[in-house]
Specification:
The protein is α+β, with helices and mostly antiparallel strands and 178 residues long. The protein has one domain: Porin (Beta Barrel), CATH 2.40.160. The chain contains 2 helices and 11 strands; from the N terminus they run ααβββββββββββ. A hairpin with a 7-residue loop joins strand 6 and strand 7. The chain is elongated. It starts with a helix and ends with a strand.
Amino acid sequence: MTIVIISLIFLLYLVLITKTSIMKKIAIIALVFISSITIVDAQQAAKSVYFELGGPGLASINFDTRFSRREDGFGGRIGFGGFSIDGTGAVFIPIGLNYLLGKDGKNYFEIGGGVTPVIVSNDDTDGDNFSSTYGHLSFGYRLQPSKPGFTFRAFISPVFGSWGFWPYYGGVSFGYKF
């Protein structure tokens, strides 16, 4: 299983450094993530769906899974969020890897990182559309029961990109583990 995780991380790295369009990168990253979920699904790994306010998706719906049968350890997430104001819309697709540390099967320290492609469109006649990508880290608390039930996360999520580094950013999420 470790070889699969290392291979997925390496593939994601290669996709992100190549000079392909942002949409192709998003498609490849999503395909890799879905493939990893299929591999893990056979092992009955912990999975959850949650709404996140703040964090790399701004306001997003996310799917999170562990890469093994354990409740803690390595995992990944993918989400979809965005907003629209006065004809300008933005779509955020947070993708990341995380690691959960905990001993009681319910309370965890979460550490992680990833990338968030952003696609912005403008309804004005000039058609100013653009896409960008920024990186994010995550350090926080996760309440995740060992059986199906309510999940909660509170975290600090520094973000960085070509525009610089913003260390004081965070968020919360509420969801369900199944």
